[in-house]
Description:
- The complex is a heterodimer.
- Chain A has strands at 5-7, 10-13, 19-24, 31-37, 43-50, 53-57, 65-68, 75-79, 88-95, 105-106, 110-114.
- Chain A is mostly beta strands.
- In chain A, the strands form two sheets. In chain A, strands 2, 4, 5, 6, 9, 10 and 11 form a seven-stranded mixed sheet that branches. A four-stranded antiparallel sheet of chain A has the order 1-3-8-7, with no helix packed on it.
- Chain A is globular.
- Chain B is built from no helices and eleven strands.
- Chain A binds chain B through residues 31, 33, 35, 41-45, 48, 55-56, 58, 89, 91, 95, 98-109, 111, and chain B through 30-32, 34, 38, 41-46, 49, 51, 87, 91, 93-102.
Amino acid sequence: EPEVTQTPSHQVTQMGQEVILRCVPISNHLYFYWYRQILGQKVEFLVSFYNNEISEKSEIFDDQFSVERPDGSNFTLKIRSTKLEDSAMYFCASSSLQGEDTEAFFGQGTRLTVV
Amino acid sequence: RKEVEQDPGPFNVPEGATVAFNCTYSNSASQSFFWYRQDCRKEPKLLMSVYSSGNEDGRFTAQLNRASQYISLLIRDSKLSDSATYLCVVPGGGNKLTFGTGTQLKVEL
Lengths: 115, 109
């Protein structure tokens, strides 16, 4: 069964450092997303990406965040200067279609710890 | 009203019991809804979609009440493996998903 894969599974970084979280979406999917989940809290939408550009972003997704699809398979989330409050589980997701009834498939997540 | 609201639980039930969770949502324009399951420190996985009045899949039944803006999930004959957090999810515009905080279920022997 096709799946979304994320690397690394766990990243520890010092405050102020840049991190890049990587995702390989399902191969025939066209819509890509990043969500985050702070420990003990709900899953929150960060950004959606289609046709090589951001289609929607939340207020969490400020200038410190950026996304890129550098090649035909990878989808990355960069945090330029990490803060302690960026510590969370980051989930990548992808879907084949757009629309309210479309299922999004989630990767297993990257746990980011900022120290 | 919050965008998506759920009772966090935990619901502790014996094996074989029937348990129901409710979820309320604020956007009356939403047409479809999802229940996702999340195991501890794992990714959310789709359990059921709800498009019209309801949906049934084996031991799981999801119902939608548009007038009252709530969705329910019923689990019959609960098993130990059903222990997880159940997330009510409401799609927004552009494929964005809005998650509830989740309801924790613990099924015990």
